[in-house]
Design brief:
The chain is of the alpha/beta class. The protein has a single domain, classed as 3-Layer(aba) Sandwich (Rossmann fold), CATH 3.40.50.1240. Helices cover about 35% and strands about 15% of the residues. The protein has 6 helices and 5 strands, in the order E-H-H-E-H-E-H-H-E-H-E. It has a 5-stranded mixed sheet with strand order 3-2-4-1-5. Helix 2 packs parallel to helix 3 and helix 5 crosses helix 6. The radius of gyration is 16 Å and the shape is globular. The termini are close together.
Length: about 180
């Protein structure tokens, strides 16, 4: 089964370089990014689209849904919860450490990275039991980092900061 993961288009907190737990919609640029990706994948046929239920992912999935596929929403591919970091600049944490699988640092009430990855891995394990040929997943940067870990293993140094997708970037995996 081919699994294509896409990160949603830009939202305001991406532009402001902030952590955010708010359920926000795409910016104008985010809509343009999704439209541009739609043009790139217009000839691809997916059996199903699975999306995070957050507004930014849902809006991106709707734009990309050229063939009026069924869209399934799954809470397990919601972004890593940032907790009380919400609204704060990214610089309030050591970003390398925040996205280090082996970290012992807990940043406020943010979701533990291992528990976050377990949540996404459970989603992927269940997906293996489905009879799809080609799936489009619309999710988040953190989820794309967990996908990387699932398919490529945890890097020796545990660092995932630079292994996630950019807004409306797409990556193919074989499940």
């Amino acid at each position: 089964m081919k699994v294509y993961i896409v990160r949603h288009g830009q939202v305001l907190h991406n532009a402001l370089k902030q952590y955010n737990a708010e359920d926000e919609d795409l910016t104008e640029l985010g809509i343009v990014q999704a439209e541009e990706l739609k043009d790139k994948i217009k000839n691809m046929k997916f059996d199903v689209i699975i999306s995070s239920p957050l507004v930014r992912a849902k809006h991106t999935a709707d734009i990309l849904n050229i063939n009026n596929n069924k869209i399934i929403y799954d809470d397990r591919i919601i972004e890593r919860y940032v907790g009380d970091l919400s609204g704060k600049p990214l610089e309030v944490t050591n970003r390398e450490e925040y996205w280090n699988y082996y970290t012992t640092i807990q940043y406020g009430t943010s979701e533990n990275i291992k528990l976050f990855f377990e949540r996404v891995y459970g989603f992927l394990d269940e997906l293996k039991t489905k009879k799809y040929d080609k799936i489009l997943i619309v999710a988040h940067s953190g989820v794309s980092k967990a996908f990387y870990g699932y398919f490529n293993g945890i890097p020796e140094d545990g660092r995932f900061l630079n292994l996630g997708l950019k807004n409306c970037e797409i990556k193919e995996y074989i499940l």
